[in-house]
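WARN no homologs supplied; continuing
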Amino acid sequence: MDENSTVDVDASYVEAGGTPQAPEGFPDALAGDRQDVDQLLPQLVAHLGEHRTKLRQEWASRIQDARLLQAMTPQEMAAETTSVYDNYVEVLETGSVEALQHYARDLSERIIPRGVETHEVVGIVLLLRDVLARSLFEKYQQDFALLNRVLDAYEPAANRIANTVAVSFVDERERVIRQQQDAIRELSTPVLPVRERLLILPIIGVLDSERARQLTEQLLAAIRIHRAKVVVIDITGAPDVDEAVANHLVRTVDASRLMGASAIITGLSPEIARTLVTIGVDLSKMNTIGDLQGGLEEAERLLGYTVTRQNDSAE
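OK structure emitted
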């Protein structure tokens, strides 16, 4: 968490959450006597429900002071804080692991697309834990023995919620990132039909081994679908090619040939050409043309097309 969004949690009565761990159920998390906890939690839930509006407003104010959730509009933040508060209290009441996990996943799915960061999610949950703990402290401060019992019932459950939300948010964020990476890879290696039996594959950006493998799969599938006879692979936009990728490119050409399509490589930079020579790639297997225009002209020649000027044909 950066310095502008530090969460001030009163250590005198709020236990540090520690490293987030996946939930294993509230019975293992709750400290003290089980019967005592069962008697006190309903009282805590009733108190938090009775003062819902006041506590939620105080929490929202703390969030603003800590400069969290700034990617949201005031209306979105009000709706989310209300939803989080109600779910938080419901989980305290039921102690259900399934409800807790569902709540955390639902929260993550809603707020990740809005640009909310991990430290903000952890921060707002810890702030809510702090606000509710302060409220309990004020309610029971005249009876310290009862206060200790109340906090013994509240703190482990609250910490479990905070930890589970943090873990679920990170998991969901990683899933979204993986999806975005897959989408980017697909968009960055499009196989384009130029005309009947002719495909072009422009490669833009870094070509690593994983992307080279995906490139081959997409190209072979397109050759089959379009019944292509010639494929132009343009690597003008590829800044560099290492030995592994160069060898994969050669295998792609061989695989295309096995599918019945001739492959033409265009756009070799001087640096890539030197790399291919240095690492000893078998260039006899690669039909290389200097630029994309020349590659397309060669492809049309292989397909039997003849290009003439319109005014020449009119004469």
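The mean pLDDT is 78.
OK
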